[in-house]
């Protein structure tokens, strides 16, 4: 076949030199390309690429662990494609945030293992960088290890849709607004970061950071220490997570300074009617309502937090 094409081109060039001295190539899309015969040194036909057979193409969600964070959720649109090409088994990984990788793999009883390269865009913007990487695990749970990324990163791909609790997990930055009783407030604590973590049973934990309020009625300047409320259960009808933590034995350190005098400075236990509700919104928004009473304080406190998921 190659000899035939060589003879055909030679004849074509010879005819062109004797007549119009041009070579015109008619393409299948209807366009043409014309060259002067004197510009053409030779024409080579590339060998046909080996047939590629796609064995499996599936979508799943990602959790990523690095030196700086553990099991952080990164969306549910990552793809794994398993192929055969040129006598080799290949796996291609692709995700909008965590890049594209190609691995030569072995497969045995539902397990895969292999090595290759993955190209990942900078998490802070900028160029794409290529890394050596390995792939291993079950076809439903694949770990991609990238030793030279962020102090050692593991991209965990999980087959299927992400659990609802995992989708809401993460860090949120926003403002907490507090009302004392029914008539005092609201008082604001700005730039507050709430942390939501997912549990294996579908519940979530909420970590409320230290919060500072100034000029609170009766109390003056008030500081509440960080505390965690665990095991908020999901209610599908309201698309929210909630828990009455009155009897959970949770304590918070409360310090109040009024007119330069410290009037309160110790740990207090949350009392009856202490309940927290977490409601996810669109585009990473989050609302947390937290109604509680501390120690022997005569007034209940109502707090509303509005935040946005950190990128």
Could you explain the architecture of this structure?
By secondary structure, the chain is mainly beta. It is 7% helix and 59% strand. An eight-stranded antiparallel β-barrel has the order 3-5-6-7-8-9-10-11. Strands 12-13-14-17-18-21-22-23 form an eight-stranded antiparallel barrel.
Alpha-carbon Rg, integer:
31 Å
Mean of the pLDDT scores?
A: 86
Summarize the biggest pleated sheet.
8 strands, antiparallel, barrel
How much β-strand is present in the residues?
over 45%
Q: Helices and strands, in N-to-C order?
A: HEEEEEEEEEEEHEEEEEEEEEEEE
Tell me how many strands there are.
Answer: 23
Shape: elongated
Q: How would you write the strand order of the largest sheet?
A: 3-5-6-7-8-9-10-11
Give the SSE map.
Blueprint (H helix, E strand, L loop, with lengths): L1 H17 L3 E5 L5 E5 L15 E14 L6 E2 L4 E8 L2 E8 L3 E10 L2 E11 L6 E11 L2 E6 L6 E7 L4 H5 L1 E11 L3 E15 L5 E5 L2 E6 L3 E5 L2 E9 L4 E5 L6 E8 L2 E9 L5 E6 L4 E8 L8 E9 L2
Antiparallel strand pairs: 1-2, 3-4, 3-5, 3-11, 5-6, 6-7, 7-8, 8-9, 9-10, 10-11, 12-13, 12-23, 13-14, 14-17, 15-16, 16-19, 17-18, 18-21, 19-20, 21-22, 22-23
Structure keywords:
mainly beta, disordered N terminus, 23 strands, single chain, 311 residues, 8-stranded antiparallel beta barrel
């Amino acid at each position: 076949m190659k000899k035939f094409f060589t003879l055909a081109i030679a004849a074509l060039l010879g005819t062109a030199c004797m007549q119009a001295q041009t070579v015109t190539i008619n393409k299948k899309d209807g366009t043409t390309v014309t060259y002067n015969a004197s510009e053409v040194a030779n024409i080579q036909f590339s060998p046909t690429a080996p047939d590629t057979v796609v064995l499996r193409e599936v979508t799943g969600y990602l959790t990523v662990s690095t030196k700086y964070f553990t099991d952080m959720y990164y969306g549910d649109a990552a793809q794994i494609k398993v192929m055969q090409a040129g006598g080799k088994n290949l796996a291609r990984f692709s995700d909008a945030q965590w890049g594209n990788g190609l691995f030569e793999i072995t497969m045995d009883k539902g397990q895969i293992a292999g090595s290759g390269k993955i190209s990942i865009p900078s998490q802070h913007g900028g160029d794409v960088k290529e890394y050596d990487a390995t792939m291993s695990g079950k076809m439903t749970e694949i770990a991609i290890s990238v030793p030279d990324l962020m102090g050692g990163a593991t991209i965990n791909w999980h087959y299927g849709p992400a659990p609802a609790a995992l989708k809401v997990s993460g860090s949120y930055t926003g403002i907490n607004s507090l009302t004392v009783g029914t008539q005092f407030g609201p008082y604001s604590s700005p730039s507050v970061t709430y942390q939501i973590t997912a549990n294996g049973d579908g519940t979530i934990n909420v970590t409320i950071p230290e919060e500072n309020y100034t000029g609170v009625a009766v109390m003056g300047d008030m500081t509440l220490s960080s505390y965690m409320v665990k095991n908020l259960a999901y209610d599908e009808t309201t698309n929210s997570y909630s828990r009455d933590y009155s009897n959970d034995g949770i304590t918070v350190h409360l310090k109040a300074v009024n007119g330069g005098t410290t009037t309160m400075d110790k740990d207090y236990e949350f009392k009856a009617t202490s309940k927290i509700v977490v409601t996810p919104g669109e585009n990473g928004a989050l609302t947390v309502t937290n109604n509680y009473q501390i120690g022997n304080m005569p007034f209940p406190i109502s707090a509303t937090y509005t935040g946005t998921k950190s990128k």
